[in-house]
């Protein structure tokens, strides 16, 4: 079976019973209005928050049964926004991603170096590995933080609004990167703000008021009547090359 | 000028400079003092060719002890700043030093059979191990109290405010204990402004012991502090046993603060200035910042003490007056810079 | 008849003397309408002088530190320089309050309508100046002159005793363990000189300098005087101080528990303080 799975997750905060499954190699977009519980669900899946009822299962085993380092090796989590260690070298930031494999006292071996090099390469951040994080643009910085999450070579990647505050070009870069990672077999779950970016995912899940409102392929979920219910009556949806494209009327 | 250099080279240069400055501080500290001793005689005394207790029994341990106190305060400051991700955190502003002073004074009062007169001078002559331990408890509790009052670490302004409140209250209590039976205002000043005047070899040994105890965990945990700069959630998601590590870091920084306060009183701003200046030169990598802050704190305090004991010689200024005169404007500059950015 | 005339003359003089207007040590003009009967003193040395003038029964309260003569210990205590209790003072309705020139207690008391006189007692000369001022304020001028003469006589006796000593030891005087000492121009500095000791501290450092320990070791005093508890152990344990002659010879005189007041208060018992120093410097 495999996969990372929320089963009947209730609480903390807004969640009122959520079932969601993320398979390896799958990229799922999580949509929903502010306060719907998206970020909370992501933290619960990452093992950072404990649900009041229900549970999270990682490859059929309760997540709580994993040691914290093992969990860190399998799941990588990237929160929204800072803090950013402006005075750290890009390379050191990415190397921090190896901590689940190294523990407190481990020394870096060839495998660790290779993983760091790969993460830098795949995110296109290798050219500024010797620069301080504070000297990068917002988009470059976001890719470095993503590289940090990738350096553990996780099987599942949990991202909270990885494209927010980026300009359009960098947003698209990040989305393309997520697609590529999924092709490499990584399960990607990303909270997104923009339905048009969600439309590029394999699957879309919509959360509202702590419940899963809809789940399925972008074409099945991102329909005009559904999105009007979610965002308001001016929402229009057109199909471009078979994918839904959302825009506002007028 | 140094900005243009590659970072790796710049970092090596910073360490080289720190080591040179440390050597310079050592030489100047031992060579200069209230009593002029010709350089040749200083050298002869150090080599054991000539007996001069002023050099070997007074200046050398005072300089070495000052280095250890400065190193402890510098590292504690860096650790506090990293742990709380707050550039204004330091043992002085967090109330930690005041807590240590209160603990030490309280112990002295208890040991002296509630005779504050005894307490007041026992504090200065250093009740070595137990004093540091009581100071440690005081520092730890004061820091935790500051954190509770500030409602967490993230809000810089609240943290400083809470730290100042906790520090003032504890300094008030310490003053109260010291002033119990007589009008000993000078003693209180001396303690709240720091005093390196009687650091001898026993003090150096006690300081060395506690530094050996508290420095290695801090230096080894530089990477954990780096991970904490990504935020607690990320650090936790990386699998780090965060609660235990944070407590270990807090305990080690508190122990360093207490060891310094027990031997030398409250010396402000060394823990603030040192890591800050070095962060601008080295970046924020705590694997480098912690050892650099140890060296930088040692240099800063020995040079400050050198000023304190030579500017008005043969009278002395309280060393805390010198560090505060350096640190106050520095603190204002930081505030101003932060406001400029916001 | 002549006796009666003399008595009348005294009464006449008193009647002329009051109301009395003086300028106090803060430069304030103070008017006392009649010889005060209810006095509060906020300085131990002033308390001692008032009592030595025979006016102890006029005191209604003192500061916390006044402890001589015995009778004043029973009086209400109105705080110290840093923590005075003006409410208590006002409630006692004194007709004269004697305060230190330091602190701003006089402002509060003045606002409450009390007569306040600020006194400076710091130097050796202040002892006699203050005694004479208090004599005028209290209408006891003759007593004041007698007291001045008596103190000077006692001091002279001690000085004469010191003068017989063959040598003048180098002296280091420590008032506080951090360490603070006394300059030659301070009150204690003058006593050291009168007791025929040589203060190792140079004049330029001022009255109460914080001194560099290595300077003390370099000057190698033959006698050390300290006026705080536990001084003996503290001084012996200091790095490098075992080489100091006073420490080696065990010539460390520690005065606490009331004796320190004799040395620190410029008041009528100054000769007793001087005697302590003469004994310490030259033996009995």
Instruction: Provide the CATH top-level class of the largest domain in chain C.
Output: Alpha Beta
Domain count of chain C: 2
Largest inter-chain interface?
Answer: B-C, 40 and 36 residues
Overall residue-averaged pLDDT value of chain C: 91
CATH superfamily of the largest domain in chain C: Nitrogenase molybdenum iron protein domain
CATH topology of the largest domain in chain C: Rossmann fold
- Tell me the β content of chain A: 25-35%
* Uncertain stretches of chain A: none
**Percentage of residues assigned to helices of chain C:** 40-55%
Account of the 3D structure:
- The complex is a heterotrimer of chains A (250), B (342) and C (284).
- Chain A is an alpha/beta fold.
- Helices cover 34% and strands 26% of the residues of chain A.
- In chain A, a hairpin with a 2-residue loop joins β4 (53-58) and β5 (61-62).
- In chain A, α3 runs parallel beside α6 and α5 packs antiparallel against α6 (138-151).
- With 342 residues, chain B is mainly alpha-helical.
- Chain B is built from 15 helices and no strands.
- Residues 113-124 of chain B have low confidence and may be disordered.
- With 284 residues, chain C is an alpha/beta fold.
- In chain C, 42% of the residues lie in helices and 15% in strands.
- Chain C has twelve helices and eleven strands.
- In chain C, α6 (141-163) runs parallel beside α12 (270-282).
- The termini of chain C are far apart.
- The mean pLDDT of chain C is 91.
- At the B-C interface, α3, α5 and α8 of B face α8 and α9 of C.
């Amino acid at each position: 079976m495999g996969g990372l799975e929320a089963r009947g997750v209730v609480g903390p905060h807004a969640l009122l019973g959520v079932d969601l499954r993320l398979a390896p190699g799958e990229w799922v977009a999580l949509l929903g209005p502010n306060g719907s519980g998206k970020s909370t669900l992501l933290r619960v899946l990452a093992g950072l928050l404990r649900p009041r009822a229900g549970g999270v299962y990682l490859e059929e085993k309760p997540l709580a049964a994993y040691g914290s380092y093992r969990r860190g090796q399998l799941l990588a989590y990237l929160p929204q926004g800072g803090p950013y260690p402006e005075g750290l070298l890009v390379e050191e930031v990415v190397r921090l991603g190896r901590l689940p494999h190294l523990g407190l006292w481990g020394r870096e071996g060839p495998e660790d170096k290779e993983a760091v090099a790969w993460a830098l390469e795949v995110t296109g951040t290798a050219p500024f590995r010797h620069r301080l994080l504070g000297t990068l643009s917002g988009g470059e910085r976001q890719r470095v933080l993503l590289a940090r999450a990738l350096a553990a070579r996780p099987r599942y990647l949990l991202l909270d609004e990885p494209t927010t505050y980026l300009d359009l070009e960098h947003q698209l870069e990040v989305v393309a990167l997520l697609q590529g990672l999924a092709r490499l077999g990584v399960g990607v779950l990303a909270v997104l703000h923009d339905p048009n970016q969600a439309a590029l995912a394999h699957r879309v899940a919509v959360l509202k008021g702590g419940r899963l409102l809809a789940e399925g392929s972008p074409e099945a979920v991102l329909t005009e009547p559904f999105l009007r219910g979610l965002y308001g009556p001016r929402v229009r949806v057109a199909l471009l090359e078979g994918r839904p494209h959302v825009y506002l009327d007028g | 000028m140094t900005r243009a250099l590659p970072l790796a080279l710049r970092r090596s240069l910073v360490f080289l400079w720190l080591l040179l400055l440390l050597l310079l501080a050592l030489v100047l500290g031992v060579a200069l003092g209230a009593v002029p001793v010709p350089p040749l005689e200083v050298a002869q005394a150090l080599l054991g060719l000539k007996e001069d207790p002023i050099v070997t029994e007074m200046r050398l341990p005072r300089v070495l002890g000052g280095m250890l106190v400065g190193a402890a305060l510098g590292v504690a400051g860096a650790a506090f700043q990293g742990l709380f991700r707050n550039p204004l955190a330091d043992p002085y502003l967090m109330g930690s030093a005041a807590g240590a002073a209160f603990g030490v004074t309280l112990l002295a009062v208890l040991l002296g059979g509630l005779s504050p007169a005894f307490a007041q001078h026992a504090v200065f002559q250093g009740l070595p191990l137990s004093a540091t331990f009581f100071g440690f408890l005081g520092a730890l509790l004061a820091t935790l109290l500051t954190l509770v009052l500030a409602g967490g670490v993230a809000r810089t302004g609240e943290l400083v405010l809470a730290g100042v409140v906790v520090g003032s209250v504890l300094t008030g209590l310490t003053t109260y204990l010291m002033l119990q039976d007589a009008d000993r205002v000078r003693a209180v000043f001396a303690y709240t402004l720091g005093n390196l005047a009687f650091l001898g070899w026993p003090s150096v040994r006690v300081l060395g012991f506690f530094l050996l105890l508290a420095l290695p965990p801090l230096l080894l945990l530089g990477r954990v502090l780096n991970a904490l700069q990504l935020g607690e959630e990320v650090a936790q998601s990386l699998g780090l046993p965060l609660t235990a590590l944070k407590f270990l870091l807090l305990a080690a920084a508190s122990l360093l603060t207490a060891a310094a306060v027990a031997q030398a009183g409250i010396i402000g701003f060394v823990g603030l200035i040192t890591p800050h200046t070095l962060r601008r030169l080295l970046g924020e990598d705590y694997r480098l910042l912690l050892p650099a802050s140890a060296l930088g704190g040692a240099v800063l305090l020995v040079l400050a003490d050198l000023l304190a004991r030579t500017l008005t010689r043969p009278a002395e200024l309280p060393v805390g007056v010198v560090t505060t005169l350096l640190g106050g404007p520095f603190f204002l500059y930081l505030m101003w810079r932060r406001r400029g950015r916001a | 008849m002549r006796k009666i005339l003399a008595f009348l003359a005294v009464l006449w003089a008193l009647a002329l003397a009051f109301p009395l207007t003086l300028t106090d040590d803060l430069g304030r003009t103070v008017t006392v309408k009649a010889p005060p009967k209810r006095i509060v003193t906020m300085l131990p040395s002033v308390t001692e002088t008032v009592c030595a003038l025979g006016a102890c029964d006029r005191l209604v309260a003192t500061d916390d530190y006044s402890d001589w003569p015995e009778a004043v210990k029973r009086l209400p205590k109105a705080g110290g320089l840093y923590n005075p209790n003006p409410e208590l003072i006002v409630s006692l309705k004194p007709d004269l309050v004697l305060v230190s020139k330091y602190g701003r207690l006089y402002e509060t008391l003045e606002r409450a309508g009390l007569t306040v006189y600020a006194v400076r007692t710091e130097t050796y000369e202040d002892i006699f100046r203050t005694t004479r001022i208090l004599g005028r304020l209290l209408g006891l001028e003759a007593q004041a002159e007698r007291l001045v003469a008596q103190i000077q006589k006692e001091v002279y006796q001690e000085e004469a005793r010191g003068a017989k000593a063959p040598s003048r030891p180098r002296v280091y005087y420590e008032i506080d363990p951090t360490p603070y000492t006394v300059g030659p121009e301070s009150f204690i500095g003058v006593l050291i000189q009168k007791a025929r000791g040589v203060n190792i501290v140079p004049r330029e450092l001022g009255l109460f300098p914080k001194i560099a320990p290595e300077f003390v070791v370099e000057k190698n005093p033959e006698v050390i005087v300290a006026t705080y508890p536990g001084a003996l152990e503290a001084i012996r344990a200091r790095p490098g101080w075992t080489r100091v002659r006073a420490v080696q010879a065990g010539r460390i005189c520690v005065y606490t528990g009331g004796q320190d007041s004799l040395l620190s208060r410029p008041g009528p018992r100054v000769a007793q303080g001087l005697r302590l120093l003469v004994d310490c410097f030259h033996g009995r």
